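Reply to dn_fold:

You asked what the input looked like. This is it:
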Amino acid sequence: MPSASRNWTPDSIPDQSGRLALVTGANSGIGQVTAQALARRGAHVVLACRNPQRGQAALDRLLDRAPGAHAEVRLLDLADLASIRAFADGWDHDRIDLLVNNAGVAMVPFARTADGFESQFGINHLGTFALTGLMLPHLLASPDPRVVTVSSEGQRFARFDPDNLNAERRYSAMYAYLQSKRANLYFATELQRRADAAGLRLRSTAVAPGLTRTNVLTGGANGNRSRLYGALTRLLLRVAFRPTPEGAKTSLFAATVPDLPGGAYVVPGGPLQLRGEPVLRDRERAIRDTDTARLLWELSEKLTGVPFQLSDDAVCPTQESH
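and this is what came back:
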């Protein structure tokens, strides 16, 4: 088990030289902090971003703050399965050592993805599921592959309804968001169970960042809301939410602690998991609910058309190294 997390800080991150990391949603917020911290410690980091201009700006900031770092930006839109497939088809590194599934949207007005999925379920869960499945051969080409999926402390309050995952009957922005974050935790733990059953060395973990000051509530689809919404939300973020680097701690902990067990769920250790230092938590309904996790996995494979090849046969031929 990892050493006591109260003694852990981002300065505790071991040397990441020779490690290739892929971070989704790395142009802002927790994803940007995660990518920068990994690059500072020597990892080659691929920033997967939806917007090319914002992605390039994030890369420029990273290289400015970590001179000499190895990093690049690539286009990826988790709201479009064609974009996810194109991203996977264009992967020209020989492996992936670390995949941080960070990108997502939160409590946005009702919308559908390019493939007709409710946007929060489609981006936060199905996009993440499809990307991980398509990149799995590259992960299994690594000697020590790790997947970190960002869930939320709010998933504990989700009313998970398998018959309304795609807003078939009704839509509530909060309901859909919490349900998608519960799906992230189901996915991360089920991936570990399936990797263990196949005898693979893959480690899948999930994290909750706690209340964190990012633009997820004010940018993207939320950027088109009223001025009153924007003003009140920005005030709430300043008063009640902690700085972004604090929220990135659980992601970095899960991504870099050497002896972290597969299947771990890393959360802030304070009251209600809203703030505090990273700790492991195993008393979560979603971790124990293997039946729902299995059903969600099977549904996700059907909806995305991405089956997971969890065997050594899935390892892709060696391609150009980074």
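Residues 317-322 have pLDDT under 50 and may be disordered.
Hope that clears it up.
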